[in-house]
Amino acid sequence: MAKPKKRITEYRNYYLPLSFPVLVLAGEYWKISDVPSERLHFHNCLEIGICHSDSGTIEFYDKKVPFKAGDVTFIPRNVPHTTYSAKGKESRWSYIFMDMEEMLKSMLSSAWNNFSMSMEVLANHNYIFDEKNSPDICQLVYHILKELIEKRPGYQLSVRGIVMAMFIELIRAEREFAGGDETNDPLNRLEENLVIAPALRYIDENYMQQFPMEQLADLCHLSSTHFRRVFHEIMGSSPLDYLNNVRIMKACSLLRSTEDSVLSISERVGFRSVSSFNRIFMRTMKCAPREYRKSMIQTEKNTNSPSILKYSGWMQPE
User: Fold this and answer.
1) Do the Cβ atoms of 34 and 64 come closer than 8 Å?
2) Coil, strand or helix at 172
3) What does 231-244 look like in DSSP terms, one character per residue?
4) pLDDT per residue over 162-180, tens digit each?
5) Distances in Å between the alpha carbon of 66 and those of 69, 186, 315?
6) Which domains does the chain possess?
7) Is the pTM of this model over 0.70?
């Protein structure tokens, strides 16, 4: 028996301005075909979708979730998916891409700046909210879209405030889904994250340096064993893996914005050898550093706007 064809997964990188990391895609152009794509794709940031018309399906590997007009979707970064309309339909959407951590950093206390807002909690909701069951969340998203389109004076500050309210409502929705059980309450986890905040802050400021993980434990006044356990519970990775991920993200920025050699960039972000850098970059980004840089250069040549990587075929059958 022939093996089933392996499905291709695409990485779509959206460039978000550092000062206001939000990109809105709206208008009649953003329509979804009724032909399922052979490819899943994932993004480097949170995707918020607003379905304005018709219905269809969002597919996540082996899970298919229906959507309808009025639904709002929240798809975290690094979650492979594809969307297609019901047969004979062409649903219209608006999309908002954002980096929530950067958006809210100025509004949170310094201890909360590194709290992960990657939206893992939304998996219990299949990443979709409807107007009937989640009116507050949907209305907040509509308000964000309105502010981003109209761009009235003070809209950026307004959007940040609404995003904060939206984030809290999403966490409350997760609490209600869990039946009010506060043992794993995301709001409580916000406070728990204060324990490792000194380590996260130190990594963010000193990722380019060499330092032992025990130093991070000392900053948090925890034993090394307890620190590693608590860190993994909160961040979902080991301290070293988190540090390497920060280094790779910094390297991606340098590959996009400078002509420095791969060796030079690997040293600037804290790797002791270029071979180690290449290995971890490939594991994280699914391509080599030189391939990543080449794809970014080609993207800017082929698009009118440097802010978004556009894929031909995304709005029609591939």
Assistant:
1) no
2) helix
3) HHHHHSS-HHHHHH
4) 998 998 888 787 777 666 5
5) 11, 27, 19
6) 11-183 (2.60.120.280), 196-302 (1.10.10.60)
7) no
